[in-house]
Design goal:
360 residues; alpha/beta; Rossmann fold; seven-stranded parallel beta sheet; 11 helices; 7 strands; binds nicotinamide-adenine-dinucleotide
Length: 360
């Protein structure tokens, strides 16, 4: 990977979102001014201008529309691996209310990244799981791996978890309804939902094509709303209690710099307040809704970039009070807590899992 431009090195960290540019760039018009994805970085037109901008970015928390970053094609990124050593039914004793035994959970965007790890956390905590993703093949593969890992780590366990994979486009109402019906056919019920399907892009607002912004909001906001309401209807019909966790981002509460990502930030603010609003609307039905807002997490995609750029990693981590990026495993406990009875009086909350980033 070619070196990142000086601006990038001089300012606050980039979110994992910078890794998402290739699909964006492949669909943009020539009038749009996207971040570079060419093999070699763009040459600055005039050195003094670049220097001035760098100085500005160094001295102020501002977004910078000239940020360019090269990142690997998503197909070159290794798939996520199930977490090993998470324990399970035969692990250390813990508060019984943390158990998800007997529950059926759904995780959208669960074929990779954070969704996969949170789904595995639910399984380790006793739940059966339905993985929903656009990438059905990967979801199928991961469903098998989760059960195999569970079996290996819990020798002699009486019952293996049931983990299924389902195609679903969360931004499409018909696809969501079809997917929920398929899950109900496979599992008989749904008790818990984690909405992790989402993506992000970086582009200055004045150049961001509106159709791409709508696509982003369609997955991040509509997708959360559609899946949550479909599951809520099922819970209400069943007169059953339930718990939902929406995956927001610290970007829903703060503005990341220097990468421009206003539509993403707005989408995650919407996710956070949607959780709060629905928690009030559905409290009488016994449905709890909370939000988890992760900070900078080390996923397969970010790791691939950072391995080749140790300097960049240290710059990112220097802004996190805990001094390191989050591991997807760091979400297993928070999601289990919020889905379980251990949090039965917690609803409408936003749990930031960001190493302290947002309190500085
Ligand atoms: N990784 C981070 O550092 C980070 C930080 C804060 C918030 N988040 C949020 O966490 C969530 C997961 O991020 P990730 O890094 O694991 O991403 P990821 O790209 O690794 O995984 C996202 C998954 O969602 C699926 N998906 C995308 N669009 C979909 C759709 N329309 N319908 C169904 N599935 C779809 C993808 O196929 C993929 O499997 C996102 O909402 C993201 O905004 C991530």
């Amino acid at each position: 990977m070619p070196p990142l431009p000086p601006l990038l090195r001089a300012t606050r960290p980039l979110s994992h979102s910078l890794l998402r540019l290739r699909p964006f760039l492949s669909t943009t018009t020539t009038s749009h001014k996207p971040l570079s994805t060419s093999a070699s970085p763009r040459k600055p037109k005039a050195a003094p201008k670049t220097t001035t901008k760098t100085t500005k970015a160094k001295s102020a928390a501002r977004t910078d529309e000239s940020i360019a970053v090269t990142y690997p094609d998503p197909s070159a990124v290794p798939p996520s691996e199930p977490v090993v050593g998470a324990g399970g039914a035969h692990g250390l004793p813990t508060l019984a209310t943390f158990s998800l035994q007997g529950r059926v959970g759904v995780v959208t965007g669960g074929a990779r990244g954070l969704g996969l790890v949170m789904g595995q956390g639910m399984v380790v905590s006793g739940a059966d799981l339905a993985i929903v993703d656009l990438n059905k093949d990967e979801a199928d593969k991961q469903a098998k791996l989760i059960v195999e890992t569970f079996q290996r780590e819990n020798p002699g366990v009486e019952r293996l978890p049931r983990v299924t994979a389902h195609f679903g486009d969360v931004s499409d109402a018909a696809s969501v309804d079809k997917c929920v019906a398929e899950i109900l056919k496979a599992h008989g019920k749904i008790d818990s939902l984690v909405t992790s399907a989402g993506f992000t892009e970086n582009c200055e607002a004045t150049a961001y094509p509106i159709e791409r912004v709508r696509k982003l909001w369609g997955v991040n906001v509509d997708g959360t709303y559609l899946f949550a309401t479909a599951v809520a209807r099922h819970l209400m019909e069943r007169k059953a209690k339930g718990s939902m966790v929406f995956i927001g981002s610290m970007s829903g509460s703060i503005v990341n710099v220097p990468q421009p990502q206003a539509p993403y930030n707005a989408s995650k603010a919407a996710v956070r307040h949607l959780a709060a609003s629905l928690s009030v609307e559905w409290a009488k039905a016994g449905i709890r809704v909370n939000c988890i807002s992760p900070g900078y997490m080390l996923t397969a995609l970010t790791e691939k970039i950072l391995n080749g750029n140790p300097d960049l990693k240290s710059q990112w981590t220097s802004l996190i009070p805990q001094g390191q990026m989050g591991n997807p495993k760091d979400l297993m406990g928070p999601v289990t807590f919020l889905l379980s009875d251990a949090s039965s009086y917690v609803t409408g909350a936003d749990l930031r899992v960001d190493g302290g980033y947002t309190v500085t």
